[in-house]
Amino acid sequence: MTTAHGKETRTATSPATPTPGPPRPNRHTLPAAALITGALTIVVLMVFVPWGQRNDLSYASLAPIRDAAWAGLLADALAMVAVGTGLAVVVGGLVRGRGRAWATAGGALTSVGAVVFALGASAFASLVWHATDPAVLSPDQGTALLAHAEANPGHGLLLHMVGFLTFTVGTLLLAVALLRAGTAPRWLPAAVVVLTVLLFAFPGRPQDLAQAAQMLVFAAIGVVYLRSEDRA
Q1: Are 90 and 177 in contact (CB under 8 A)?
Q2: Potential cystine with 215: which of 39, 50, 179, 226 (Cβ 3.0-4.6 Å)?
Q3: Pairwise CA distance, residues 143 & 137, whole Å
Q4: What digits encode the pLDDT tens for the residues 75-123?
Q5: With b meaning 16 or more CB within 10 Å and e meaning fewer, what string describes 119-146?
Q6: Cβ partners under 8 Å of residue 140, min gap 6
């Protein structure tokens, strides 16, 4: 515009305010969400056990529930990966100083162990489904195949067992890390240790319930992590 003295002035204009986009989920919530979702999935599986009695690999037990067993074992495999990797990141986020080495080692073991467990579980799920298909194998042939797989675990079930053991050792190291760091209620890592002992002390149905309780503790650790992120 031009003033009365003939001088031209310019009106300052403010820059356009950008339109805010939709909120994005905090990247720190993703591992906790994976941990909690995976842990609760395993709790449901341990309560309803769609594959039948634990460690019962007989044809007579698995054939009537072959579809449920396949789906349950596959869901268990995927959920274990979510728990193993999510727990590693969550505890690593809670333990920043004292106990860090324990958290790093434990997280590596839970992650690797969960993946190896999932490989073995998914392979066995496929074997069970095909071996119990009467259109492919007769009951006698299916029985012989499953018995042979159980008697020779080195080419299948060994992955499942080694993966679970590696994962379990990793959770104990993570419990030590949390105890040393003191960044979570002490009853949580203490419960992990106690439930791990119970998991191997009482086979059968008590083992399922001990694992379900252990998964609830892992989910609680995920909640503690989320609350710590909210305060940060």
Answers
A1: no
A2: 39
A3: 9
A4: 999 999 999 999 999 999 999 888 999 999 999 999 999 999 999 999 9
A5: bbbbbbbebbbebbeeeebeeeebbebb
A6: none
